[in-house]
């Protein structure tokens, strides 16, 4: 019968590994159930095998076969495979109940710290890998690299040509590149070329602002209305009526 505190340590370790380390960086929620289920399953079976007459090698061999089937049933990235085996290792460490008692929590914590440091390395955060199919064959590697950098928006570190089809004019390449940082600040040169606007350049919204739209015969009335700054409503009304009469005629 496994110690309850070892089970509690394993559950805390797998929750920290999946939610605080893996999901915070990779954001693939469907893998959380797979990692936690694998960890708990390995913990349960290993604990039973440790107290039974069945050989532990047989049980571990069965779990190895099941793990291979699971890994081949769906396409997983290499970092997800690493978390897969880390979850498996946490379950084995807790299920075997090593002596002395502090070995299980110590190795579990060390495994989580190693995964956190390696997966959160800022030097490798900007590196990407893609398989790109081009509609043109580039026999020159310099032209191929320039085309890929323009297409991916990054600095190409390595290019591996996987396939070249001269009949269909296609080329498949495996690219390892670094994403260029995006610059969102305003260019000083652009800021210096933009003209500065003041309130004096703003158009007036008074009655005199539309004097150019009034016919020549009606401009005196409009000027008088503009000089009043809109205070004389009779003058504005007379100008509007005169403008309407001129338009109708």
Automatic annotation (TrEMBL):
Compositional bias (Low complexity) at which positions? 230-249
Q: Where are the transmembrane segments?
A: 6-23, 32-50, 102-119
Name the domain of life: Bacteria
Instruction: Spell out the residue ranges making up region: Disordered.
Output: 218-249
Going by the UniProt record, its keywords in alphabetical order are: Membrane, Transmembrane, Transmembrane helix
Key word Lyase present: no
Q: Does the keyword Repressor apply?
A: no
- What is this protein called in UniProt? DUF4956 domain-containing protein
Source organism (scientific name): Sanguibacter inulinus
